[in-house]
């Protein structure tokens, strides 16, 4: 079970926007039910990152997080989306 | 025929909660999202509206009376309650101007791209609400939806040009290549930040001061969390109002709840808009790229995570509360929009090049302005809220920092209160002048790029 933190400016608008896209893509790639996504604001990313596998962020994040940060701004622009999804997928292990 | 007219007039009288779902669903169907998806999107928007209404209702029930009592006790006049940008957005979308805003703004973007007056494909459909907000206030001041829509169009034109002009800074300081931020709120502060920064440069001695605030965010960031800010402010106001401790505790937890729940309800609203937003942005990207170097216009939220932005915004939370109480003639009580302060800084941070002192000074100046503007715009905003059938306790007025404190919104509104014709003419002239200037600049940029190629 992979746990992701999805972070944006407010934890509302941009993160909600890409959450659906990420969920649809991950389900399509066969990971349905094998991950969880928690939304949060940029200022909460560091504290929330504990115990999660990766922080997917639509905003610039320079704070230290307990796990790797994936820059997902491209999902808002429809640019480089495949690479971003590949990056997210790389956190799943064969046991998942 | 009469039945149809009656139907629409009944619908309209039920307010945004019922009208918006219809409009969103119809737009979705027109844009080819499929009937099922469109209906679900429309309903989700309606639910978001109702949710927001419920939470601001809580504010009206608990916060407003306590603030009134507190003001009586201390001779304060803080009777304008800050309901925050989610409510402002809901109100903006819920007015008549708001119901037309999405197709109107798409058209403006298309026309601007075709006339070479912008390099930006604005895919941030959600943020059209800022232009609808300005337009709604102008519509109220001029008693004309047409003038309101014109004001919205000119507001967008000005912001689109400013977005293009600041795109290089965005790329450099926020590391976002190919992105511009044509945001009705954040981008309005770019020229102000540049002017103030230039001014600070000219003051001997002061122009040398700099401190680094970025580490602050890591250390005390937890105090900026909405749940704590809301509860603490609820406690402070309850105690200041001299309420019995039971009521103080109730007020505190309710206010903490409001600041947490408002964003969640806004998320629902946004979720309903997503299919429309995706369809619209897909359309515009597919058919209108390839006009020279193009930027993708995004929500300025993508720049909010910058550590200086977050740290200064954090410091400004207690500073705002103190300012609100101390400023003579101010009636604006900051609350829900303390959370929006980072958005003010998205384009201020690049301008001050990481200088924490300047960021703080500029922040205080624009906040002071925001409070007075928020106070000045409160009557019209409250009327707009009533038009959108937004619930709030009678006897208080509502406002917000975003866009109730937005200097560009205020300027456009104020000009239109002098006289509609003068107002629209002046704003229109500025918008067109900026567009023409941008067109000339874009031609030069594209010519230079073509030579290098």
What would the keywords be for this entry?
heterodimer; A: 96 residues; Rossmann fold; B: 453 residues; mainly alpha; three-stranded parallel sheet; globular
Give the neighbour order of strands across the main sheet of chain A. Answer: 2-1-3-4
Distance between the termini of chain B: 61 Å
CATH superfamily of chain A: Response regulator
Structural class of chain A: alpha/beta
Overall number of strands of chain A: 4
Helix segment tally of chain B = 17
Give the H and E element order of chain B.
HHHEHHEHHEHHHHEHEHHHEHH
Extended strand count of chain B: 6
Sheet with the most strands of chain B? Answer: 3 strands, parallel
Structural class of chain B: mainly alpha
Secondary structure: helix percent of chain B = over 70%
Q: What is the correct CATH architecture of chain A?
A: 3-Layer(aba) Sandwich
How would you concisely characterize the structure shown here?
The complex is a heterodimer of chains A (96) and B (453). By secondary structure, chain A is α/β, with parallel strands linked by helices.
């Amino acid at each position: 079970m992979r746990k992701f933190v999805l972070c944006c400016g407010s934890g509302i608008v941009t993160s909600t926007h890409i959450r659906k896209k990420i969920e649809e893509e991950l389900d399509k790639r066969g990971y349905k039910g094998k991950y969880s996504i928690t939304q949060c604001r940029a200022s909460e990313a560091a504290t929330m990152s504990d115990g999660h596998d990766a922080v997917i962020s639509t905003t610039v994040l320079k704070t230290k997080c307990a796990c790797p940060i994936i820059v997902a701004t491209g999902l808002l622009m429809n640019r480089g989306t495949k690479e971003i999804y590949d990056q997210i997928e790389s956190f799943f292990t064969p046991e998942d | 025929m009469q039945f149809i007219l009656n139907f629409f007039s009944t619908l309209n009288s039920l307010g945004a909660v019922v009208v918006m779902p219809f409009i969103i669903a119809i737009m979705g169907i027109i844009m080819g999202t499929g009937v099922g998806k469109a209906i679900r999107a429309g309903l989700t928007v309606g639910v978001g509206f109702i949710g927001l209404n419920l939470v601001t209702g809580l504010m009206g029930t608990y916060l407003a009376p306590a603030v009134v009592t507190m003001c009586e006790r201390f001779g304060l006049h803080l009777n304008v309650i800050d309901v925050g940008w989610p409510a402002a957005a809901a109100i903006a979308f819920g007015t008549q101007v708001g119901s037309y805003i999405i197709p109107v703004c798409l058209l403006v973007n298309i026309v601007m791209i075709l006339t070479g007056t912008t390099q930006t494909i604005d895919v941030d459909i959600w943020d059209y609400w800022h232009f609808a907000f300005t337009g709604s206030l102008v519509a109220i001041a001029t008693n004309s939806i047409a003038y309101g829509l014109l004001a919205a169009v000119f507001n967008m034109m000005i912001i689109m040009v400013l977005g293009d002009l600041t795109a290089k800074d965005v790329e450099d300081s926020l590391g976002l290549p190919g992105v511009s931020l044509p945001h009705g709120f954040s981008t309005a502060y770019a020229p102000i930040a540049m002017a103030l920064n230039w001014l600070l440069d000219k003051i001997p001695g002061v122009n040398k001061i700099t401190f680094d605030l970025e580490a602050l965010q890591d250390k005390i960031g937890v105090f900026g969390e909405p749940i704590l800010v809301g509860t603490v402010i609820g406690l402070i106001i309850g105690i200041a109002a001299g309420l019995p401790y039971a009521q103080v505790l109730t007020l505190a937890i309710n206010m903490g709840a409001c600041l947490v729940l408002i964003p969640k309800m806004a998320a629902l609203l946004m979720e309903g808009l997503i299919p429309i937003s995706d369809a619209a942005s897909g359309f515009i990207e597919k058919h209108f790229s390839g006009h020279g170097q193009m930027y993708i216009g995004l929500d300025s939220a993508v720049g909010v995570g910058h550590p200086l932005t977050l740290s200064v915004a954090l410091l400004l939370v207690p500073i705002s509360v103190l300012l609100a109480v101390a400023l003579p003639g101010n009636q604006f009580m900051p609350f829900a929009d303390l959370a929006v302060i980072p958005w003010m800084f998205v384009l201020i941070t690049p301008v001050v090049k990481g200088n924490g002192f300047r960021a703080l000074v500029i922040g205080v100046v624009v906040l002071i302005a925001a409070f007075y503007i928020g106070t000045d715009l409160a009557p019209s905003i409250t009327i707009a809220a009533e038009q959108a059938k937004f619930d709030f306790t009678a006897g208080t007025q509502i406002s917000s920092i975003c866009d109730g404190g937005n200097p560009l919104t205020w300027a456009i509104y104020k000009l239109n209160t002098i006289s509609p014709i003068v107002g629209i003419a002046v704003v229109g002239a500025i918008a067109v002048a900026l567009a023409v200037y941008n067109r000339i600049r874009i031609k030069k940029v594209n010519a230079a790029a073509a030579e290098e190629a």
